[in-house]
Amino acid sequence: MLTLNHHIKITQETINSPNLSGEFPAEDLVAIGAWCHSQYRLDKESRERWEKRNEAAMDLALQVQKTKTFPWQGASNVVFPLVTVACLQFHARAYPSIVSGRTVVNCRVFGDDPTGQLHERARKISQYMSWQVLEQDEAWEEEMDMALLLTGISGGVWKKTYFDPTLDHNVSEVVLPRDFVINYWAKSTDRAPKTHVTYLTRNTIYERVTAGIFNDVLNDEWYLGGVQPQKTTETVKADARQGINEPQQTEVTPFACLEQHTFIDLDGDGYAEPVIVTFEEETQTVLRLVYRFDSLNQVTYNSEGKLLKIKPTEYFTK
Predict the structure, then answer these.
(1) pTM
(2) At 231, is the pLDDT very low, low, confident or very high (cuts 50, 70, 90)?
(3) Residue 6 to residues 24, 28, 115, 284, 296: CA-CA distances in angstroms?
């Protein structure tokens, strides 16, 4: 269990803070980074068998032809596009069912509405949110198109919806199953810790540091040095499926950063609050620490004034 030397109180000010890392000493941040990384490794190891099945599904869908050694070396190997055709047919039916015209969002009204005010409000909300996803978020249609295609291959993908402070509007992006790490035995994604593997360029980190979202790591050795791509069995197979080679230059290679939605006791009362910890994978340097709930209304106390539970804000949708 993670134990911190310094603690903070839950207030609306700390909830609204863009980064709580400055409230903790360096040793606490080192402990948080190491603990979160260990949890990530445990979750990743628990789904090792699933990752192999997912790789096999991707190979079938992309018709990757491999050299056969059975019943003899170099035996004929014909890959039929059955899975590929099935995924394309699912995508061709699903996409127009969701994106049909300019109205993507439709709100429903529950209960009586004698004056029609609720229906009018629902119409306006539907119209505005449809504009958000189709016009304001220029990548939404492309991301949804990708999500539906990958759903047929992997059996499910995730969409991450959040407010992007650099773009100044809400975004909804696809999270590939391989980049969404959750314990294989987790019964519910709402209460289980999960990690989103993201890849941030040096410029992106710089922008977030100057905006006060990330800790100032601009003089850190790992940031100033060149990024060394981690060559693993997964990356080699992924490159083979896409028909690409490992890049020779590392100056433009993005940093692998882990955004972990987990639970840490920041106030020292024995109850781990929902938080988001963003850290660089190689050095485990904490870049950002924030609460994962938006207001004190999500905090419930019992009759004696003792903290009962906190309802976290969920960013991921399957």
Answers:
(1) 0.84
(2) low
(3) 6, 7, 55, 20, 22
